[in-house]
Structure to design on (949 residues):
């Protein structure tokens, strides 16, 4: 019996202690009409060997194509130590640290993470993680409505340059509580949030402005002007940032005269493998004045009976297990182990290592865009400055081009047709430090051949 | 637990100029071209440590934790069963880890086949019509389920329903989820026998009822015997039934929520299907639905084409979907672990989970009553978990459930869930799971018997426990009053 240790003798003796004739008798309170007789749709059990063989064959079937897609999930080198540490049973198989005395390892790691993340974003306090980047934006909008006591509008301005999936998740999550969302257009020439559109939307009261930096196109917004604009109208600023970029870019805490109020983003670039979209972790930081409105777990330092320092979950009166219907969120289990991977990653890279990752990723993307836009029929859609992503315009539909590249084992980027049809045939590409000059050359030659063949056809 | 010593903060190991340089990529050719106004001026406070410093630090920290791999974890409602290492190895195959979430479906047929089969197996064990895998944890699945119930009523133009009924003993996430979905949570009482009070449900159901959220077996560790009547009452009032899958382990292969009349359900794959809890996640909260809620499932979902090829369903396929709840397709790595686990268990193994989880709980309950503890529902069969109440000990010796929990830590056992459900005073909610041996259960009984003796002979020993852990009882009040949430370096 897989993973069940009982011998026949154990079962007999245990039933005798219970005073039941059989295991079946233990289910005698369940109405007979409800009982199922077997689960024929489920295959018979396999040994670990067979399951490994099956899944290894499926993994091989998918292979490891050369990948130039970013769009919210980025391939970075992950130090071997990161996952060798976080898959230690003591971390991997532990529960949420409610029993603080038996969870000091997890709790101290969260405290270290809170410190690193607050500093990276230029804020004062971090929570212990949320689900992912998209749901972190949704939670931030709900938090902003609670935190901005001057605004009764519950109206949030969301830029169209925010990741389309993040916009979708925010709408699906927060609309149920009566929040209203307004989409801010971008300027077609620059790929940046349009100040004219912002002025127009700001004619009515709004609670918070969301700013994505870099934005979905990889472009860098004028965050100082946007932040000051929102603050001047009594609105809060929610910054949505890429953590790697913050090694080089001004942290949201320093945007404009007063800095952003809530910072969120996707933690995946910090030590989490791409893994088809998860598990990753969302992060959230804010200022001390808003800490009681923050969702999720928070760890604080304290002392024990002997006066020795230790760590414990704190401000739990915000959370569902205490506050129930009045909690800041229903969030409970989320992405603890990934937050831990992020902490070990940041400890190993340090500020200088992270700067190098960011700078080399920018350089590689420039090289990629340079090589690709030199191909006839390919052009750069927006200018600079950008971070490690860029939009390329093609002279023909993108999908067949990507399919042809796929046949050559290259994932050439994200087709923007469904997300931004107004751009015409457009492709979002990304290169990080993991892409060599030879990789970029491979892609450029393949794209050139694919486009030449398409023109010939 | 070997060395109960304080481990310094990683920042205290930091020295200017030190670093794990093997992990740094080559410097870029020239400084990045960024306008001055967008540049960072001061470096963030990240440690400057060697690779060995970091590895040793986090390895030492790990040793300050209890975990399933090191300790028995009888944590009620959390299903802390063994997390098979093979499932981890299978999910961490390099091709699975390297796959980009937005890579084409044609380049991910192997991965999608695993997810599709997982959906099918979850349909079979839950008895639901369709399953979606994207919610990232139990509470996230609850949100999806209640949001679907809301979308269902609205699609019918039935806009007056603004209440969700939850039993008094429900998990805190249930009322919190109702609020997140814009509903008012209305609590109903539980009867003295542990079953929900049918008359109270009948009285609560009306044209304002959107639905009811239930756990079965309930949070009281007993099977809700009149579940079919509850379903009839709620459906007759036009409401729908939501099943909180936190306790699915108890009935796996024996009864199915779909057959009980539930319309929406979430399954905690990190409980029932043994993916690791990770010190607070990742989880996965797959949702199952009855036919009437199928059009509202959250995206994306994996479908199989007539030719056998797999693809993601989108808004075009499910125009009434509640939409997207995740950046990408869900916690794929967790889903792969659950898939590997279910394939290893197979149909027979699935049934044994429910059976042996129930055997262990009933055995442990009987033994603990033998040594002098009081069960909250002694006349009932335990499901996969049961409740002890220490009301008597609290009155006689001034010893609380918290004291017992903390003393258990000293004796090498993780504490059961304490003070939940709130309606049983001084309670311990105990769930042993099927993967624990009789010897482990007996050792736990011996520890509990020792604690009971100590409660009579030296209650102070319990009240000041734990004594042998890295820290003694921590001052939670101070933690909340004098907030210390980040390290502040002494250096400028």
């Amino acid at each position: 019996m897989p993973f069940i240790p009982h011998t026949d003798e154990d079962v007999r003796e245990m039933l005798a202690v219970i005073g039941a004739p059989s295991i079946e008798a233990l289910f005698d309170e369940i109405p007979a009409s409800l009982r199922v007789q077997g689960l024929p749709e489920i295959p018979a059990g396999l040994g670990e060997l067979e399951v490994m063989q099956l899944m290894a064959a499926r993994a091989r079937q998918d292979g490891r194509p050369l990948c130039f897609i970013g769009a919210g999930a980025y391939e970075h080198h992950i130090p071997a130590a990161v996952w060798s540490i976080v898959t230690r049973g003591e971390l991997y198989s532990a529960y949420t640290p409610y029993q603080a005395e038996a969870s000091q390892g997890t709790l101290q790691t969260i405290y270290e993470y809170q410190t690193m993340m607050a500093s990276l974003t230029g804020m004062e306090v971090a929570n212990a993680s949320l689900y992912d980047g998209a749901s972190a934006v949704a939670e931030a909008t709900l938090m902003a409505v609670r935190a901005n006591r001057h605004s009764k509008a519950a109206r949030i301005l969301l830029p169209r340059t925010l990741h389309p999936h993040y916009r979708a998740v925010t709408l699906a999550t927060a609309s149920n509580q009566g929040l209203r969302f307004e989409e801010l257009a971008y300027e077609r020439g620059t790929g940046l949030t349009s100040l004219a559109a912002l002025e127009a939307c700001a004619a009515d009261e709004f609670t918070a402005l969301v700013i994505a930096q870099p934005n979905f196109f990889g472009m860098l917004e004028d965050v100082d002007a946007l932040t000051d604009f929102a603050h001047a109208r009594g609105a809060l600023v929610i910054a949505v940032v890429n953590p790697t970029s913050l090694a080089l870019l001004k942290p949201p805490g320093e945007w404009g005269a007063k800095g952003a109020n809530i910072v969120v983003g996707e933690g995946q670039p910090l030590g989490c493998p791409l893994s088809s979209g998860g598990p990753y972790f969302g992060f959230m930081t804010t200022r001390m004045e808003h800490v009681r409105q923050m969702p999720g777990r928070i760890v604080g330092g304290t002392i024990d009976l002997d006066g020795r320092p230790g760590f414990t979950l704190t401000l739990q009166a915000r959370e569902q297990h205490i506050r129930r219907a009045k909690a800041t969120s229903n969030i409970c289990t989320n992405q603890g182990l990934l937050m831990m991977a992020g902490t070990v990653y940041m400890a190993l890279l340090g500020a200088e290592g992270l700067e190098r990752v960011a700078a080399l990723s920018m350089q590689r993307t420039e090289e990629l865009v340079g090589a690709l836009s030199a191909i006839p029929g390919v052009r750069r859609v927006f200018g600079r400055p950008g971070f490690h992503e860029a939009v390329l315009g093609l002279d023909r539909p993108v999908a067949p081009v990507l399919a042809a590249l796929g046949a050559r084992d290259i994932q050439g980027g994200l087709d923007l047709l469904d997300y931004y049809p107004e751009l015409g045939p457009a492709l979002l590409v990304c290169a990080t430090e993991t892409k060599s000059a030879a990789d970029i050359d491979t892609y450029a030659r393949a794209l050139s051949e694919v486009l030449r063949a398409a023109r010939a056809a | 637990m070997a060395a109960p010593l304080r481990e310094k903060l990683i920042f205290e190991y930091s020295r200017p100029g030190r670093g794990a340089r093997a992990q740094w990529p080559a410097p870029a050719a020239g400084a990045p071209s960024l306008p001055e106004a967008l540049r960072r001026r001061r470096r963030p406070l990240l440690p400057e440590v060697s690779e060995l410093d970091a590895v040793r630090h986090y390895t030492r920290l790990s040793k300050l934790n209890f975990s399933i791999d090191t300790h028995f974890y009888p944590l009620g409602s959390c299903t802390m069963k063994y997390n098979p290492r093979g499932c981890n190895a299978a999910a961490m195959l390099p091709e699975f880890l390297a796959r980009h979430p937005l890579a084409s479906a044609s380049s991910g047929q192997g991965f999608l086949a695993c997810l599709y089969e997982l959906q099918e197996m979850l349909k079979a064990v839950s008895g639901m019509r369709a399953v979606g895998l994207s919610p990232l944890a139990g509470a996230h699945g609850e949100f999806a389920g209640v949001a679907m119930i809301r979308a269902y009523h609205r699609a019918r133009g039935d806009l007056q329903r603004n209440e969700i009924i939850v039993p008094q003993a429900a998990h805190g996430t249930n009322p919190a989820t109702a609020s997140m979905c814009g509903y008012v949570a209305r609590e109903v009482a539980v009867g003295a026998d542990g079953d929900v009070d049918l008359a109270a449900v009948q009285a609560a159901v009306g044209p304002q009822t959107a639905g009811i959220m239930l756990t079965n077996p309930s949070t009281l560790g007993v099977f809700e015997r009149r579940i079919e009547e509850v379903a009839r009452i709620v459906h007759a009032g036009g409401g729908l039934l939501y099943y909180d899958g936190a306790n699915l382990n108890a009935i796996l292969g024996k009864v199915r929520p779909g057959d009980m009349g539930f319309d929406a359900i979430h399954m905690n794959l990190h409980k029932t299907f043994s993916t690791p809890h990770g010190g607070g996640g990742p989880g996965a909260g797959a949702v199952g639905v009855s036919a009437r809620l199928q059009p509202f499932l959250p995206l994306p979902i994996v479908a199989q084409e007539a030719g056998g090829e797999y693809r993601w369903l989108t808004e075009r396929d499910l125009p009434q979907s509640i939409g997207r709840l995740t950046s990408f397709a869900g916690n794929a790595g967790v889903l792969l672990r659950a898939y590997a686990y279910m394939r290893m268990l197979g149909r027979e193994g699935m049934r044994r989970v429910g059976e042996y989880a129930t055997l262990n709980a009933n055995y442990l309950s009987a033994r603990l009553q033998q040594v002098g503890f009081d069960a909250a529902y002694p006349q009932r069969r335990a499901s996969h978990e049961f409740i002890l109440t220490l009301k008597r000990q609290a009155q006689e010796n001034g010893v609380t459930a918290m004291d017992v929990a903390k003393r258990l830590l000293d004796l090498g056992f993780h504490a059961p869930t304490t003070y939940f459900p709130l309606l049983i005073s001084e309670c311990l909610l105990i769930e042993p799971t099927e993967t624990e041996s009789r010897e482990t259960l007996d050792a736990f009984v011996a520890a509990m018997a020792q604690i009971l003796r100590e409660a009579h002979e030296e209650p102070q020993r319990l009240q000041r426990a734990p004594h042998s852990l890295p820290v003694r009882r921590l001052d939670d009040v101070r933690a909340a009053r004098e907030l210390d949430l980040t390290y502040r370096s002494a250096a400028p």
Residues 50 and 378 of chain A are 47 Å apart (CA to CA). Chain A has two domains: 66-76+351-456, 80-344.
